[in-house]
């Protein structure tokens, strides 16, 4: 009976852990604003992405208030601003502010997102900090006052992407409860186990299987994300770079589970072998 209880508790604990780890990573790296900014921040250093994002941001600047006879003057300044925007000292802060605003619009709770003015049916990038930076440069170059909008939204995904983001955001916080349940189940398995070396080997094998499942699921999710059109060239570039960054960020978690699993499996097998040898030796002495 104890063996059955231990095995069942161990299997339950490993299943809960397999679900908990990705959820905790999602919560820390994507659902939380600081984690999202840390993960997506390096995307702003990619030259090709910088160029297209700056062009898209500057292209939204409203110059309708500029007198017609100055249009020929403003147009080359707009082009120069788009080309030089990423070289400005303020660019890094503007990019971080863009990520924070976009996170609040796309991953905040429904009521908070509506208060921020986000579309309820799509993922959104708010590039207003970049637009304000570009407008300031144009104003300094031309002497013409430009009033940048408080919000400049670029579509970053359709309804399907929005739905998946909402599901992940709802699932992620449950990871901590799943982790606690896993710890309780594994503790019960240890207490009930008759052969703890066998249990250790089983847990190690489970960790290896979990790491393999995470790798396979990550590839499927990555391919599915990259196979959908986000709606614009800038959005597609952001999606491609963000998915690649997320895959790289989760790899250490998978590697840690695989290494821990291999160590536990090896220790369990060695311990079990040593225990059997001691049992044989004891039996021989008794005879």
Blueprint of the fold:
Blueprint: H1 2-31, H2 33-40, H3 47-59, H4 71-84, H5 91-107, H6 110-116, E1 123-126, H7 128-142, E2 153-157, H8 159-171, H9 175-192, H10 196-226, H11 233-286
Antiparallel strand pairs: 1-2
Describe the structure.
This protein has 287 residues and is mostly helical. The chain folds into 2 domains: 2-28 and 174-275, no CATH class; 35-165, no CATH class. The protein has helices spanning 2-31, 33-40, 47-59, 71-84, 91-107, 110-116, 128-142, 159-171, 175-192, 196-226, 233-286, and strands spanning 123-126, 153-157. It has a two-stranded antiparallel ribbon. Helix 1 (2-31) runs parallel beside helix 10. The chain starts with a helix and ends with a helix.
Percentage beta strand: under 5%
Q: Quick one: biggest sheet?
A: 2 strands, antiparallel
Judging from the principal axes of the Cα atoms, what is the shape?
elongated
The count of strands amounts to 2
Structural class of the helix and strand makeup? mainly alpha
Helix content: over 70%
Q: What is the chain-wise order of helices and strands?
A: HHHHHHEHEHHHH
User: Roughly what is the average pLDDT, rounded to an integer?
Assistant: 81
Which parts are unreliable, with pLDDT below 50 for 5 consecutive residues or more?
none
Q: Domains counted in the coordinates: how many?
A: 2
Radius of gyration, in Å, reads: 27 Å
Oligomer: single chain
Q: What strand line-up does the widest sheet have?
A: 1-2
Helical segment count: 11
Distance between the termini: 30 Å
């Amino acid at each position: 009976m104890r063996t059955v209880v231990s095995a069942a508790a161990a299997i339950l604990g490993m299943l809960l852990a397999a679900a908990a780890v990705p959820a905790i990573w999602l919560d820390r790296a994507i659902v939380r604003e600081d984690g999202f900014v840390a993960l997506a921040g390096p995307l702003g250093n990619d030259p090709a992405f910088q160029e297209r994002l700056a062009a898209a941001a500057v292209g939204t600047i409203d110059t309708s208030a500029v007198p017609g006879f100055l249009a020929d003057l403003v147009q080359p300044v707009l082009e120069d601003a788009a080309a030089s925007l990423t070289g400005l000292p303020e660019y890094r802060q503007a990019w971080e502010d863009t990520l924070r605003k976009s996170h609040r619009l796309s991953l905040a709770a429904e009521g908070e997102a509506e208060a921020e003015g986000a579309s309820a049916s799509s993922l959104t990038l708010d590039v207003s900090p970049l637009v304000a930076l570009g407008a300031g440069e144009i104003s300094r170059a031309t002497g013409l006052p430009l009033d940048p909008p408080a919000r400049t939204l670029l579509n970053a995904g359709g309804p399907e992407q929005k739905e998946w983001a909402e599901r992940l955001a709802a699932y992620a916080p449950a990871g901590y409860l799943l982790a606690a349940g896993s710890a309780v189940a594994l503790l019960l398995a240890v207490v009930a186990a008759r052969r703890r070396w066998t249990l250790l080997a089983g847990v190690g094998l489970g960790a290896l299987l979990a790491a393999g499942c995470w790798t396979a699921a990550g590839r499927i999710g990555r391919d599915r994300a990259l196979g959908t059109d986000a709606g614009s060239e800038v959005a597609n570039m952001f999606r491609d770079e963000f998915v690649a960054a997320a895959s790289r960020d989760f790899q250490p978690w998978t590697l840690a589970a695989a290494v821990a699993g291999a160590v536990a499996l090896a220790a369990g097998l060695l311990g079990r072998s040593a225990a059997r040898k001691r049992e044989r030796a004891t039996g021989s002495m008794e005879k």
